[in-house]
Amino acid sequence: MVKIGDVEIGEKPLLLAPMEDVTDPSFRYICKQFGADVLYTEFISSDGLIRDAGKSVKKLDIFDYERPIGIQIYGHLLEPMVESAKIAEEANPDIIDINFGCPVKKISRRGAGAGMLQNIPFMIEMTEAIVRAVKKPVTVKTRLGWDEDSKHIVEIAERLQDVGIKALTIHGRTRAQLYKGEADWTLIGEVKNNPHMKIPIIGNGDIVSGQMAQEYFDRYGVDGIMIGRGAIGRPWIFRDIKHFLENGEEAEPLSLDEKVDLAKLHFQKSIEFKGEIVGVLEMRRHFSNYFKSLPHFKETRLRLVTEKDPNIIVDILEEIREKWA
Q: Fewest beta carbons less than 10 Å away: which of 35, 62, 74, 235?
């Protein structure tokens, strides 16, 4: 049984990566239905939390059925990050996660997210201060390094463990790579197989099938796998991977009927959590991905992602069921 501190997260756990504008309560609800073992909120700005900015504070909303769940925070200043960790802890998550991995320019150029990989001593100092400030287990998500010449993750992992983190998730790319090329899990495996490491090591990057997950568990020995972009438009990936891990064969693919029903449930939850206007807008990304494999779908897709009336959107979903049956 893999544990993050005292939090049990299962055998060969699958974790949903925190993703901005993706891992909101409606998407987390769907991923939980398909067997995600650990959920994370969208990443939350420390500045936004301290300013009591509505959008940031709203991201603290979590629900008991989501447990275990982590709240992920990011920022480039020590005191605001410590303060935001305390605010996040008041929302009573199971885990506080620090984002040292986001490669987006507007975040990393300020020294937050993956930008922290350019200042390892400060990364360690900030982590230690947060660990001391909260009672919940603190975890970190980061990358192999800033660029090809600074892949120092083996050393970084030891230093983060030394200051008290309870698990480490590593994305198998540098910040310079963004999401290009293939994720390199070799160094993730080195971290996991470093005899000095005692905490769970979770691998992240490019896992898209059960067979691949099994292969990477076996080859690199990681304690868990985090799924990010592979779950967008395919939240059933958690079910598919678990089926392969348990049975050694691929799961039956979802039928179009099941996808339509799922899209309708996701849409219902989106409106329930976000209200009609925002709920409609934020589903557009998911609608495009749920049905992207359908032939000659462009015109219907355009209607689906421009329509504002929820009732008409449901009608279009039913049209999809009938037209492509």
A: 35
